[in-house]
Amino acid sequence: MSELLWKSAKELSEALSNKEVSAVELAQAMLARADEVDPKIHAFLKRTDEIALEQAKAADERRARGETSSAFDGVPVAYKDIFCTKGVTTTMGSKILETFVPPYSATVVERCEAAGLTMLGKLNLDEFAMGSSTEWSAYGPTKNPWDLERVPGGSSGGPPALIMSGGVPWGWGTDTGGSVRQPAALCGCVGVKPTYGLVSRYGIIAFASSLDQAGPFARTVEDAAILLMLAAGHDPMDATSIPQEVPNYLDGIDAGIQGMKIGIVKEFTDTEGLQPGVKQRVDEAYTRLERLGAELVEISLPSFQYAISAYYLVAPAEASSNLARYDGVRYALRSDEGTDIVKMTSRTRDEGFGPEVKRRIMLGTYALSAGYYDAYYGKAQKTRSLIIKELDAAYEKVDLIVSPSSPDTAFKFGAKTADPLSMYLSDIFTVPVNMAGNAGISIPCGLSPDDNLPVGLQIIAKSLDEKTMFRAAHAFEQDLGFASDPGMRPQI
Amino acid sequence: MSTTASEMYETTVGLEIHVELSTNSKMFCACPVDFGGDPNTRVCPVCLGMPGSLPVPNQMAIEYTMKIAAALHCDIARFHEFHRKNYFYPDMPKNYQISQYDHPIGTKGYVEVTGDFGTKRVGINRVHLEEDTGKSTHVGGSGRIADSDHSLVDFNRAGTPLVEIVSEPDITSAEEARAFVTELRAILESLDVSDVRMEEGSMRVDANISTRLTGAPEYGAKVEVKNMNSIRSVGRALEFEEKRQRKALDDGETLVQETRHFDEKTGTTSSLRTKEFAFDYRYFPEPDMVPFEPDQAWIERVRGSLPELPASKRARFAEIYGLSDKEIQTLTTTSATAGWFEEAVAAYGGEAKKISNWILADLYGLLNESGQELSDGKIAPAQLAALVKLVDDGAISGKQAKEVITVMFETGDDPAKVVEERGLKQVSDTGAIEVFVDEVIAENPDAVEKIREGKDGTLGFLVGQVMKKSRGQANPAMVNDLLRSKIN
């Protein structure tokens, strides 16, 4: 069965269809792999073996009757523990939601269930998706399968770590400032931040509402595109969801990039803290794109330099409000130390939230305070408008924009926790995409010559132009051969 | 030279009215909007503020708010945006309220009010849409949160669409405030967008009142008065507060900006909190929703679909029914009452004044005793019309009719049926009445003599005697005529 572990979801779909394997066997193989690797990487916050086997059995029964819920009926999946799952604890990586069992599932989960995907479990993240390493998870960090002394990136560290350990072909994360693309880069897999509004946010516990977007992880670009298609599309339960048909991203994905114009951001070329090995692999990637027929165009996006500063006003401001509901009144943690409502709420929040979450609540509360609003939140929103404007102008000249996904490869535990700013700068290349609501993808572009760890290339597309983005990513992936090379897998 | 207190000071009042809309579903979810119900039964993940839930705005609530804005002569915004108002309160599920801040749906309107003070326009500063909170019950102690043993929270009301209407500080007395609230309630009632029941909390009034020396450039310290559960309470609370503030100033005290609680029982206000505890609500645009621009056609449609508003209705009543202001005021308190009256007048076909008299003199007394509204009662408009016709036709006397209406009020029976069952037929048979008339003339020679001398007042006595003999069933007009012709 172990040969199944590294197959793509697309290949597994074919294997299921040809009756080479059953959904139950598939689920069993993945769960057995979890028994093997999870003690080392700690990707799971909760395993849902029973649910997975039950769903797999139902998928097999459907297939035996000649019915399938989709071509991927019976293929396993796993979710970052930010997606509400009906009847299954959803913790958000926080003590404050340790006992929270949602009475509903996120739209993403419902749609994947409707497609017949079997749920292996809920995966680790930085508490409330705030962080770039999973070290802020209240339940302990996830480890990078390439080097167990290093972080997998974050906040969605669980899914790529499990995927790159052969534990599941694909999974769901969320990306508010880079939380899918950065861990994908650090673990050597594919990670997508779709256009804001493409995937419903209903049932995804909010961090920063105007930036949060669910995104798929996979080992191949095609798989990532497929998983996105299974869940994308308008949802009446989310007022920011785009009421538009989702195109088939696989149509013309093989068309190559001959004649495409690809922008390279001038302001990113000398980014402080950009590791030489990362720079080298990314520069090689640019050359490869050129060789594949793309025309490289230098573009200037001066507002990108302020993106991180603006992001760290907007995101914490929204978070400070979104997280106000965790007061101990209605669900999950309630401190018994409080003797009145004010003390109870403040004790609950003090016990339930970790240090990074508290820091961001304070930052955000401050940014929205009377007298400071215009200088902070107001100015940050203006910066955001500027980023959007500059990007719109850039797309007049180019089809796509490329950059590194992360300034460095997977770093060691503790390297950045003492210095929040250095942690925040992990998202320097990814944050502008969230601020603009555009689409972005991180794909592996080799191992760094510095430390033999994966390097990610980010490809950015204008809103709702995922199709072009996937086409370029697929062309690059096929030419590089990273995903299909068994040598390019962590030895775990 | 002396100045009376009422000339020395001037009172400034601004009102904030919250109105729960009677849409089918809540503001941001599909839960039903309904008064009552077992606690926490009309809730869902959205109105409970569960993690991951999202608000989706209710189009009907937006239309209702535009309707209110239109009826209050407001400009209707072409750009709508919701904001979050952040503060912690245990019956507010998200610990922020989705409200509107710098883009209210309606601005710059007015309400015209009339009273003993004359007619004046009270400006409307804004009309905006938000969501209601849940309800807390504090168990033990005085019923307030501070000394209670514990508190219970019911979220059935949480997320109900709530419209806030803010007046300009154009009101200068308790009387004007009362008239304003009465008129506003009548307008809202006619729009059919809310139950507007102050006792049940579907309409809630808070008042800001300040006192300053007449002509002073600055307003006095603003005092917010809460907990006024009827229009009468609004008047009482403001009268008390006006006197209190004037006396305090007379006594050389400095008034402070504060919130005061009105006590229904004592008719007094007491301090709840001073403004040192001012909240910073940290308003910011609600990121879970996108701003939207209603198209002009929608706004025009709303403006065009307004029903007849109370002011027009009153003017029409005065013109076509010839009623007094006081009668009109009462008959147009609610559109249901006005509609009931008009139906009765139409069924009757005669003088509207007669219908009005029966409603105001008789039916209202009965309704007041039972606490019902005219339209809730058992009597149908056509039945009242039939009753008045019976009196006109001389089939029953006015006195009998009063008995009949009491029965009708209890049973809802047609007047003809009641008349028959009770044997109340008025005797209009000349022969039968003549016998009684002759007897009475014979038995009362002195009275007859007086009448012949021109003392007409005595006639009534003789009529009474005849009525007595007929056990009330004789037609008094005929008795009158017969007596007169026989005596003279």
Summarize the structure.
The complex is a heterodimer of chains A (492) and B (488). Chain A is built from 15 helices and eleven strands. By secondary structure, chain A is α/β, with parallel strands linked by helices.
What would you note in describing this structure?
The complex is a heterodimer of chains A (492) and B (488). With 492 residues, chain A is an alpha/beta fold. Chain A has helices at 9-17, 23-41, 49-64, 107-114, 158-163, 181-187, 221-231, 276-291, 307-322, 341-352, 355-368, 374-397, 420-424, 431-436, 466-480; strands spanning 44-47, 76-80, 118-123, 170-174, 190-193, 214-218, 261-265, 295-299, 400-404, 439-447, 454-461. Chain A is globular, with a radius of gyration of 21 Å. Chain B has 3 domains: 5-301, no CATH class; 308-421, no CATH class; 430-487, Arc Repressor Mutant, subunit A, CATH 1.10.10.410. Chain B is built from 16 helices and 14 strands. Chain B has helices at 5-8, 59-71, 174-191, 231-250, 296-304, 310-321, 325-331, 335-348, 352-370, 381-392, 398-411, 415-421, 430-443, 445-452, 458-469, 476-487; strands spanning 9-20, 75-76, 83-86, 96-99, 106-115, 118-131, 135-139, 150-154, 161-167, 203-213, 223-228, 258-263, 268-274, 284-285. In chain B, the strands form 3 sheets. In chain B, strands 2-5-6-9-1-10-11-12-13 form a 9-stranded mixed beta sheet. In chain B, strands 4-3-14 form a 3-stranded antiparallel beta sheet, with no helix packed on it. Chain A binds chain B through residues 83-84, 90, 92, 97, 100, 102-104, 106, 201-206, 208-210, 236-240, 317-318, 320-321, 324-325, 327, 329-331, 341, 345, 365, 368-370, 373, 377, and chain B through 45, 48-57, 84, 86, 88, 90, 93-96, 145, 151, 153, 280, 282-284, 287-290.
